[in-house]
Design brief:
This protein is mainly alpha-helical. It has one domain. 59% of the residues lie in helices and 6% in strands. It has 4 helices and 4 strands, in the order H-H-E-E-H-E-E-H. A two-stranded antiparallel sheet has the order 1-2. The chain has a two-stranded antiparallel ribbon with strand order 3-4. Strand 3 and strand 4 form a beta hairpin. Helix 1 packs across helix 3, helix 2 crosses helix 3 and helix 3 packs antiparallel against helix 4. The longest helix is centred in the C-terminal third of the chain and has 25 residues. The two termini are 29 Å apart.
């Protein structure tokens, strides 16, 4: 049975501790980027948009890699959002409630990048193969 779009989306959603509402169009864009990146960097996979499925059954590791690639896009967006928050500084008052958020968002992005790089490395054929 061919792997579906929904299976990859479920893998992506399973990476969140709390329920996060993301526009479907944005999820779809991240998914398509992940498919393109995976196909270019690791191994070609063929996604049929009209059927919302791949032309074959992908192994679980591939599905999870695609989901994590989507999570990386999400974390990059979150970090960008946190970095754009306004800080208020005057001689008597300094409000920058996002400093901790910036650190947490950057830390989460770094963690996702490290895990994703490990997954990609494990799937990339060596030059000696």
């Amino acid at each position: 049975m061919n792997t579906t779009y929904t299976e990859v989306i479920n893998s992506f959603h399973s990476t969140f501790q709390d329920k996060v509402i993301i526009p479907e169009s944005l999820e779809k864009e991240w998914f398509l980027k992940a498919v393109g990146k995976y196909s270019f960097e690791i191994d070609p996979v063929n996604y049929i948009d009209e059927l919302e499925e791949f032309d074959s059954e992908l192994n679980r590791y591939t599905v999870d890699t695609l989901g994590l690639m989507m999570k990386k896009s999400y974390q990059e967006r979150e970090l960008s959002k946190v970095n754009k928050r306004i800080s208020i500084v005057s001689k008597d008052l300094s409000i920058d409630g996002s400093n901790g958020s910036k650190t947490a968002a950057k830390s989460e992005l770094d963690k996702v990048c490290e895990e994703l790089n490990n997954m990609i490395y494990k799937q990339t054929p060596s030059a000696y193969s």
